[in-house]
Amino acid sequence: MTTQAPASGLSARAPEMLSVLRIVSALIFTLHGSQKILAFPPTEQQPPLASLMGVGGLLELVGGVLLLLGLFTRPVAFVLSGMMAIAYWMFHAPGNLSPTLNGGDAAILYCFVFLYIFVAGPGPWSLDALLRRR
């Protein structure tokens, strides 16, 4: 007779927690885009759409909403992961390589969370999963 370790019960919830990770990270990420593109929450930073920051804000807003819904999750996560890697090396690293000193810790974290989502998929609570079931 084998006994289950308490952690094995938690492992059964891993697919749902993948969805939670995707939803929460996408929601926070979307706020960065809505601040740049829609000025909500209100900010002084309003980059022109035809600038690097404007395009980044548009990707944050649209890509964040798609990730939040879990629609086209893998390709969107791949693009956003790459965008965050570029953002780190273009805007944060030139000042200082240390993320704690250059303010790039969020960019690195988003990069690897989105890379994980690209590999792992959207989880069960997503439009992708719903469409796949049909």
UniProtKB/TrEMBL annotation:
Q: Which UniProt keywords apply?
A: Cell membrane, Membrane, Transmembrane, Transmembrane helix
Task: Establish whether keyword Plastid is in the entry.
Answer: no
Q: How does the entry describe its membrane topology?
A: Multi-pass membrane protein
Please give an example of a GO cellular component term from this record.
Answer: plasma membrane
Q: Where are the transmembrane segments?
A: 49-69, 76-95, 107-127
Q: Where in the cell is it found?
A: Cell membrane
Q: Which domain of life is it from?
A: Bacteria
KW Cytoplasm (keyword) present: no
* Principal location class: membrane
The family annotation for this protein states:
Belongs to the DoxX family.
> Which PANTHER family did the record assign?
BLL4328 PROTEIN (PTHR33452:SF4), OXIDOREDUCTASE CATD-RELATED (PTHR33452)
User: Which protein is depicted?
Assistant: Predicted membrane protein
Can you name the source organism?
Answer: Limimaricola cinnabarinus LL-001
